[in-house]
Design a protein that fits this description.
By secondary structure, the chain is mainly alpha-helical. It contains seven helices and two strands; from the N terminus they run βααβααααα.
Length: about 120
């Protein structure tokens, strides 16, 4: 298993450097690439803040990527992408909310938006 960093995923999606994008594509299609939740979090930040890609489009692209790479928990990540598209929560908060929804993880936070979102999920 090979661990990808943010640049691999961003170059693949943005395709602004053909050589790097092709290498990233080869790695992704190999079926041997692992993308950590932390990397997905940084990718969402870069795509949104640096490249101005809409949250819904980011969620759609990264959800499709889950078919080709391994990650900590693809069910949690898929749900986190869905939350990211539907809310204004930071992506890390979306991961926490998804871990709560999928695994019943107890989330302790002072973040009112996150706490309210989790509370609404439970109603």
């Amino acid at each position: 298993m090979v661990y990808a960093d943010t640049n691999i995923i961003v170059r693949f999606i943005i395709d602004d450097n053909k050589e790097m994008a092709d290498l990233a594509e080869t790695a992704i299609l190999s079926g041997d690439l692992f993308v950590a939740a932390e990397v997905f979090a940084e990718v969402t930040y870069v795509l949104y803040k640096v490249y101005g890609i809409e949250r819904e489009k980011i969620a759609q692209i990264l959800s499709l990527l889950l078919d080709f790479v391994s990650t900590d928990d693809s069910t949690v990540m898929s749900l986190a992408f869905s939350y990211y598209a539907q809310t204004r929560l930071d992506f890390v908060d979306c991961i926490l909310a998804a871990r709560h929804a999928v695994n019943g993880a107890e989330i302790l936070s002072f973040d009112k938006k996150l706490n309210n979102f989790i509370r609404r999920m439970e109603e």
